[in-house]
Write a structure and sequence with these properties.
Order of helices and strands: EHEHEHEHEHHEHHHE
Oligomer: single chain
Strand content: 15-25%
Largest sheet: 7 strands, parallel
Shape: globular
Helix content: 40-55%
Amino acid sequence: MEDLAGKVAVITGGGTGIGAAVAEELARCGSRVILISRQAERLKAAAERLATSGHDAEVLVGDIQSEGFLTDLDQLAPRVDVLVNNAAVFAPYGTLEEVPMSEIDAVLDIDLRAALRLVRHVLPGMKARGFGRVINIGSVAGSLGAAGQVAYSTAKAALQGLTRSVAIECARSGVTCNLVEPGLVETERVLEKIAPEVRAHLIAATPVGRAGATDEIAHAVAYLASPASGSVTGALLPVDGGIGLR
């Protein structure tokens, strides 16, 4: 469980849900974890939970897309060994023509452009050191589509192309890039944003008959972050209860 001892792991959307679970798992494996979010109170709460488990966590409150954010990140973490792109938002449910372009742009900015920007920023250092792990958190919506969530589905599908392309470019440098593809996971955001009847429909369509747990996603991320996964790159790893088989 100390495969990542001394490694620096940056997790976006680290205050709640999957991000917080990933932070706890990577910290347990020895990483120094840095949690990123725009939500200061949730970040503080996540760091306090880690502290009660005997792990230190640092937080960076800010908008990944904002001017100066990357400078702030460099000051806090001059070296990044593991990057987990987890931050994501939904647009309001509606058909493509019903959803305002401002909402669509926000989804594409946070779910896709911010991830691409961070990967681009950390890759030179990872390549120079001969070790790096980039893990993108996708969604079955990226593979299967999602009625009423065209922007989200589009962004998550684009993450697949980003993952595979970066994997090819970095294959000889000790840097891997993979994507974990959850199905329905009952996080705070899902419970807030997805109607109960939609969640029930998704669970009914999931062969294991239940929603996923955040720690199940975290375990998959921890493997992909570890030195043991060095031959795994460009993979799209479903952790979806089998819904992708439908």
